[in-house]
Amino acid sequence: MNELDPLLMVALAAGLLALAFLGWALLERRRAGAAEAKAWTLREQFIEAETRMRLIEDQAATQAELLRAQAAQSAGAVAEELLKRTDETFRNREQLAQQRLEAQLKPVAETLAKFEAQVQAVEKTRAEETGGLKAQIAQLMEASTATQAEARKLSAALRRGAGVQGRWGEQTLRNVLEAAGLAAQYDFVEQFTLDSEEGRRRPDVKVKMPGGAVFAIDAKCSLNAFLEAQEAPDDASREAALMRHAQSVRGHMQGLSSKTYWDQFSGERSPDFVAMFVPGDGFLAAALDRLPDLMTEAMDKRVLLVTPTTLFALCKAVAYGWRVEEQAANADKIAALGRELYKRMSVMGGHAASVGKALEAAVSRYNQFVGSLETQVLTQARRFEDLKVDHEGKEIPEASPVETAVRPLSKLSTSDAPHLRIAGQDEG
């Protein structure tokens, strides 16, 4: 019995397990049947839904076709309307843009019109000025031609000989002296003769300086070589002619220095130089270019090389000296006139003082007369009024004394007046 209990228990457990398994199998089978039934139901529902979907798709396709047809018709109308509106809008915008463009371009058009008018005026003025300029150029060309002709005539005349050159130089010298303010025969003397131990000298001009001094000017410089240089055919010939011109100027300077004009004017306090007049700055410049030491050599030999420009400055200084001397002479005359005027004013002041004293005495006598009249006569005369004497309405006027005194001439008093001097001199 004890040995059979475990087996029984095993069998019982196995039976129970088999029953449990059988129940689980039945349960699973039931579940599977329910799942299969549910699956068939779902399949039927899916088929039904698929059928509905196909119907819906068919209806949607049909409606889409209908909508497409309707949309095509309405799109055509809408497109036509849009085209009309677009065309109208485009036209309106085009007109508006045209108006705006015209409004913006109107100032530009007005400015362009004004600019065109100004351009036309400028063109007209330019044409007139061009015509005037052409006329002036023509006149200038004529003047230049005339000047060249005159220069050729002058050159031809100067080449005739030393006499023509000398007269031209003398005339040029005279023009410079007169332009500087010097007067002929008063401030300078032309063509005079000096007697010296070496013989008779004849400088062209003697210029008088303030204080009695004089200096001589010579205008006999030869210009033949310079004129030859202007007509030289080549540079070598021109340079050779200019070198001869420089040597000519130098030789004339040395000969002028040997004449020692300053010694011959010793009685007139002449400065120790003589002026050598070259009638053109270009003539002297050409000589100095070839002989740079010519000016220094001339000053060492007491010869002052002058041209119209430098001589004008020198004579201007002389003219200024004459004006200063004249002003000094006038100052002396003014001083003499001042002294005489002072003397006459002193005499007149004495007469005025005498008149004042006479007036003062007359006033004193008048006041004495008024005092005597009031105290001695009028007191007795007014008693007629107390006696009722008919005086026909007339009253005796009162005589007032003169209280204003005569103003003394204190400025003419010799004790109070300052000691006057006129032009630096004692009034005496």
List its salient traits.
alpha/beta, Trna Endonuclease, Chain: A, domain 1, 3 domains, 5-stranded mixed sheet, two-stranded antiparallel sheet, 9 strands, elongated, disordered C terminus, membrane, transmembrane helix, DNA recombination protein RmuC homolog, transmembrane, DNA recombination
Low-pLDDT regions: 415-428
Q: Helix amount, in percent?
A: over 70%
User: Strand fraction band?
Assistant: 5-15%
What is the top-level CATH class of the largest domain?
Answer: Alpha Beta
Tally of individual domains = 3
**What is the total tally of β strands?**
9
Strand order of the largest sheet: 1-4-5-6-7
CATH-defined topology of the largest domain: Trna Endonuclease, Chain: A, domain 1
CATH arch. level architecture of the largest domain: 3-Layer(aba) Sandwich
Helical segment tally?
A: 9
Quaternary assembly: single chain
| N→C terminal distance | 202 Å
Main sheet: strands, sense, barrel: 5 strands, mixed
- Kindly name the structural category: alpha/beta
Organism: Caulobacter mirabilis
Family: Belongs to the RmuC family.
Keywords: Coiled coil, DNA recombination, Membrane, Transmembrane, Transmembrane helix
GO biological process, one term: DNA recombination
